[in-house]
């Protein structure tokens, strides 16, 4: 078994590397290659417990995804994310359960609903990979990524409820709601505790290797403890990842440079293995079909696949339209309140709202709460078709097959249906999603225009902050060096008055002055970098700068600081 897992890991990474080289969606190519390999006589026969697969693969993948999600964008898109990650999962589980119960009564209603919970949550790994490759606007990517972070929690909570009913427990609707609220509350609380603790370690320990190791362990700890306390391990990992990712720019740059390639490599390894494992399950699925009920199970698989494909767009368009209608009514009431002066009176009763004028508050609410108005019918078409299933569906199906309360036919049916839905959506939707995106002509031109405006505003604020910073430092340098030539400030001023480039500041400044000392110049350069970072964080927190763009600018600044430290190290060793 150990050798077989190693062979699968190596083979899947090789196929994924070829896909990345050719610009193809790696999850799809790995799945197809594994499906083809499953027919070979020497194909590895892997059988991993579903619970073990979830516990080993899900925490790091969720944490890595949460690190990359814009918390500001996640918060703004929360209405759409909540509709998809909670209500759509619930609706899909019920629809699939009723259809499955009608086609295969031996499942029983709780068993059919258990199957619905298993196939309900999409896995946005492949959708996100395709979207990034084709340049989908961030508003769509944020919704897809955010949905994938919370829908697993809804699905796994439903799974636990229906599994308990199958085991003989008597649960009411209110009991199910209570379990869900408990899972959310405990999961988020545990995740925040882990997130705050990890962030404090990142702020206080300057060893990037140690911090990276703690970062690898923390998702497993948060997931396990939250599940032990009857909370959602998924939400614990997501909450921790969002908190750490949001505060990552405040840590030392070496930590960011260490963890980025670390998590990229972990993602590639785990995702490749998971999709290869999905494809290699084909022989087991064939064995589970048997002879007696093959026709009904295949009919059930096709019907469930059709349901999960159809329910998503049938829900998304009406739900989005109704939400937009409510948002417009809310905005119209606000406008009437502003015109009559009533809103001003209500605003003054709130300590948070009091600091804004009525028009400023209206603008802020439109920006933060009316984000759903930004999604066009084309955007919703892409979101509707990006419903590929993945590791959670297959792993929970394998875990459900071991439930003693399920009959043999029901266990086989659940595994076969989960496999057909997972592979079917990966191939059908995954292969056609790029054509849909190109056919609709969805591009990120709006993002680029907004980025240019945000960059211009940030550069202007950087110049103003730079003048203040240099004025303060000039006074300090005059007190420290007396008559030393201060032409260094002229060089920095010239740098601030033109478009900023990723150059070695210390080298540029050093050539412009008879230096007081190289260390002083480096300190001045690092101070200027810190000023620019603080401006980026302030603009991000105020909602004026997209978090993804802020991270790109941070990467450039980290490279500048690395160049400063590298050159300083070589100077100290006498190499330059």
What does this entry show, briefly?
The chain has 576 residues and is an all-alpha fold. It has helices at residues 2-22, 26-37, 50-68, 71-76, 78-103, 109-119, 125-134, 138-166, 173-204, 208-228, 233-247, 253-280, 282-289, 294-340, 342-348, 358-369, 377-385, 391-400, 408-440, 445-481, 487-496, 505-510, 518-541, 547-572. It has three domains: 2-318 and 372-443, Na+/H+ antiporter like fold (Up-down Bundle), CATH 1.20.1530; 324-371, no CATH class; 448-572.
Task: Tell me the fraction of residues in β-strands, as a range.
Answer: under 5%
**Computed structural class:** mainly alpha
Question: Largest sheet, if any?
Answer: none
Q: Please tell me the total number of domains.
A: 3
Cα radius of gyration in angstroms:
27 Å
Q: Write down the CATH topology of the largest domain.
A: Na+/H+ antiporter like fold
Tally the helices: what do you get? 24
How far from one another are the termini? Answer: 54 Å
**What is the top-level CATH class of the largest domain?**
Mainly Alpha
* Strand segment tally: 0
Q: Write down the secondary-structure element order.
A: HHHHHHHHHHHHHHHHHHHHHHHH
The low-confidence parts are 499-515
- The residue fraction in helices comes out at over 70%
What is the level-2 CATH architecture name of the largest domain?
Up-down Bundle
Structure description:
The chain folds into three domains: 2-318 and 372-443, Na+/H+ antiporter like fold, CATH 1.20.1530.20; 324-371, no CATH class; 448-572. It is globular. The chain is mainly alpha-helical and 576 residues long. It is built from 24 helices and no strands. 80% of the residues lie in helices and 0% in strands. The relative contact order is 0.12. The two termini are 54 Å apart.
């Amino acid at each position: 078994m150990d050798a077989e897992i190693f062979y699968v890991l190596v083979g899947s990474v090789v196929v994924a590397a070829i896909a990345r080289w050719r610009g193809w969606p790696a999850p799809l190519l790995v799945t197809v290659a594994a499906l083809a390999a499953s027919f070979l006589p020497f194909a590895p026969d892997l059988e991993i417990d579903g619970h073990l697969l979830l516990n080993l693969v899900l925490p790091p993948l969720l944490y890595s995804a949460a690190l990359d999600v814009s918390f500001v964008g996640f918060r703004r898109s929360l209405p759409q994310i909540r509709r998809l990650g909670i209500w759509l999962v619930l609706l899909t589980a019920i629809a699939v359960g009723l259809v499955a119960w009608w086609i295969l009564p031996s499942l029983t209603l709780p068993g059919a609903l258990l199957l619905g919970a298993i196939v309900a949550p999409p896995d946005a790994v492949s959708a996100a990979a395709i979207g990034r490759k084709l340049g989908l606007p961030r508003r769509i990517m944020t919704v897809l990524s955010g949905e994938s972070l919370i829908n697993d929690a809804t699905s796994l909570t439903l799974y636990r409820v229906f599994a308990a009913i199958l085991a003989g427990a008597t649960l009411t609707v209110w009991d199910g709601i209570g379990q869900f609220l408990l899972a959310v509350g405990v999961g988020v609380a545990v995740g925040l505790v882990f997130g705050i603790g990890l962030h404090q370690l990142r702020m206080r320990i300057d060893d990037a290797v140690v911090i990276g190791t703690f970062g690898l362990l923390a998702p497993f700890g948060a997931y396990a403890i939250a599940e032990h306390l009857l909370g959602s391990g998924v939400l614990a990992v997501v909450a921790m990842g969002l908190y750490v990712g949001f505060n990552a720019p405040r840590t030392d740059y070496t930590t960011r440079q260490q963890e980025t390639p670390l998590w990229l490599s972990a993602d590639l390894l785990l995702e490749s293995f998971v999709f290869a494992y999905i494809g290699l399950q084909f022989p087991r699925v064939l064995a589970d079909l048997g002879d007696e009920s093959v026709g009904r199970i295949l009919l059930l698989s096709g019907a469930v696949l059709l349901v999960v494909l159809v329910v998503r767009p049938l829900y998304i368009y009406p739900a989005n339209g109704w939400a937009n209608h409510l948002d417009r009514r809310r905005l119209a009431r606000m406008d009437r309140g502003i015109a009559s002066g009533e809103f001003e009176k209500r605003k003054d009763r709130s300590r948070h709202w009091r600091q804004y004028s009525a028009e400023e508050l209206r603008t802020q609410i439109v920006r933060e709460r009316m984000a759903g108005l930004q999604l066009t019918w084309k955007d919703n078409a892409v979101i509707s078709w990006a419903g590929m299933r993945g590791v959670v569906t297959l792993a929970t199906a394998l875990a459900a097959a071991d439930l003693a309360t399920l009959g043999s036919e029901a266990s086989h049916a659940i595994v076969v249906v989960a496999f057909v839905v997972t592979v079917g959506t990966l191939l059908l939707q995954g292969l056609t999603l790029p054509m849909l995106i190109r056919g609709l002509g969805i591009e990120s031109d709006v993002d680029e225009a907004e980025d240019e405006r945000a960059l211009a505003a940030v550069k202007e604020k950087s110049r103003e902050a730079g003048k203040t910073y240099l004025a303060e430092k000039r006074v300090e340098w005059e007190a420290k060096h007396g008559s030393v030539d201060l032409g260094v400030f002229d060089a920095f001023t010239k740098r601030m008055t033109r478009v900023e480039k990723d150059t070695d500041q210390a080298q540029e400044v050093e050539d412009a002055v008879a230096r007081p000392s190289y260390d002083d110049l480096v300190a001045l350069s690092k101070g200027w970098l810190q000023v620019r970072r603080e401006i980026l964080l302030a603009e991000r927190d105020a909602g004026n700068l997209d978090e993804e763009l802020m991270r790109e600018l941070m990467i450039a600044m980290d490279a500048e600081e690395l160049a400063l430290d590298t050159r300083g190290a070589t100077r100290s060793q006498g190499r330059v």
